[in-house]
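[User] Could I get a sequence and structure tokens?

[Assistant]
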Amino acid sequence: MRRKRVLPLAALMLCTPALAGTAPAVAAPQTAPAAGPAAAPAGPLRILLTNDDGYNAPGIRKAFERLTAAGHDVTIVAPLTNQSGTGTKMMSAPSIAVKHPEPKVWAVDGTPGDSVAFGLAEVFAGKAPDLVVSGTNFGPNVAGLATHSGTVGGAVAALESGVPAIALSTGGLSAPDPVTTVNAMGPTLDFAVKLIDRLRVRARSGPLLPKGVGLNVNHPIVGADGKGTAAGVATTFQDPQNFLEPDFTDAGDGTWKVGVKVALKPAAKGGDIEAVAAGKIAVSPMNSDWNTGPADHAVTSALIAGLRP
């Protein structure tokens, strides 16, 4: 009989970084130019960098340093606090608190979606960034995790506004070790720089990605220290399974203890779980809506044929 591991919810989906981030290099303050379409410039890109772990988490700080070192003009607009697992949620409060603690850094007291919305409307007012990068995130955002991921949610918010977006995540399918995961963020960001360079070169004077399409990138942890090189790069789709099963235990006082059972099913051929389990980088194209396709549309039409109000 297969043993099921029961983990706290934070172990795989709400992973709060245990290590403090380092301050990013200070770039020149950004002015707000006038609005325009997202076409790829010939040179470095203007990047809005967000995440769901919080503006001061190691992943986003390392991403700032690496993307800035690659020559890009990077501005952090990210949640003030950890917002893992918030998906595409956006606040409906009449006001929102925003801090500007240092040059090129904005901390929004809301979700990744709120952060991207504020960044596009205010920080990049007048001219949208060339690209939104969300991450890198602690732990994988594959299969059902991607559906609820704040990292992916931040990228979706950008796609809804017509801005190309990449979601970045670092981790395997087991409970993440903070030190090893932070080490693996190095190779994750090295790949991200290569990916962005490829998009920029291939785009020429056009958009970085097809209209409405973003990329969900999951980098595995390779090697005992996490610093190893991935076995390859695979174009994947989001595996349809949700391998986390909620586990509730009655505490007897009107409250329930919440955990998660990890129940992996066989990976779908060509899916993101299969690629990450094989030590490969999974790159899954995604869009910002929940449309399925012509086949499912036809099936639905047949199912409701003849129904009347």
Observations:
- Residues 206 and 213 are 14 Å apart (CA to CA).
- The two ends are 50 Å apart (CA to CA).
